[in-house]
UniProtKB/TrEMBL annotation:
Organism: Gelidibacter pelagius
UniProt name for this protein: Pirin family protein
Domain of life: Bacteria
Annotated ranges, domain Pirin N-terminal: 13-120
Family listed: Belongs to the pirin family.
């Protein structure tokens, strides 16, 4: 098993006043040649957006973009005709493909919104743009990982144009679960949303990240109540 650890306080930090963003990988003005990506996982931004502020209309192309709200409500609009709110407990995916324009705003006038913005390099270029979002409340489980994204349209969760599987687990202290790699050659980037866990003998705390590859499985144990996001992705670009 190979591993790499990115502690929370070593991430890139961008504070624009209305936006405070922590970058696990190089993004915008934060450039670290040793942190360009984890396989096809290109962007992992931990964003906090001030009341009623947000990202104006801007373009994307040939990228699978996943948003996971952690607190508050995020308003989304795009040129495909989607106007919606994504909330804590939802997951959103957008295949930019041949090109899409969208905006994202904090829908709350009295509190910030916190969300993860995740970019995955697709295995198909120039696809027709698409949008989807679901609530995770009906599929959430306690003390085990449950799938929230996969390459398969008919599987649980949303889907993406890539051999990627995302899982979330909410654990009470002392509980653990073993994750099995879905596809040989894939690795997993574990991101600790809340609490503390132990993975392969390493103690990880809130907003720490750890990449794991060259293994078939690994176990995550909660040393405190915890919530963990696992992002399984190909380690080689297509």
């Amino acid at each position: 098993m190979n591993t790499i650890i990115h502690r929370s306080d070593t991430r890139g930090d961008a504070n624009h006043g209305w936006l405070h963003s922590k970058h696990t990988f190089s993004f915008a003005n934060y450039h670290n040649p040793e942190r360009m990506n984890f396989g096809v996982l290109r962007v992992l931004n931990d964003d906090t957006v001030s009341e009623s502020r947000g990202f104006g209309t801007h373009p994307h192309q040939d990228m699978e973009i996943v948003s996971i709200p952690l607190e508050g409500d995020l308003k989304h609009e795009d040129n495909m005709g989607n106007k919606t709110i994504i909330r804590e407990g939802d997951i959103q995916v957008m295949s930019a493909g041949t090109g899409v324009m969208h905006s994202e705003y904090n829908n709350n006038p009295d509190k910030p919104v916190k969300f993860l913005q995740i970019w995955v390099i697709p295995n198909k270029r120039n696809v027709e743009p698409r949008y989807d979002q679901i609530s995770l409340k009906d599929i959430a489980k306690e003390n085990e990982f449950y799938q929230v994204l996969s390459p398969n349209k008919d599987d649980q969760g949303v889907w993406a144009h890539q051999d990627a599987w995302f899982n979330i687990g909410k654990f009470t202290k002392g509980n653990s679960d073993t994750y099995q790699i879905n596809k040989k050659g894939n690795g997993v980037y574990a991101f600790i949303l809340e609490g503390e866990v132990e993975l392969n003998g390493e103690k990880l705390s809130k907003r720490d990240g750890m990449g794991v590859w060259d293994t078939d499985s690994f176990t995550v144990k909660a040393t405190e109540d915890a919530r963990v996001l696992l992002m399984e992705v190909p380690m080689q670009m297509n």
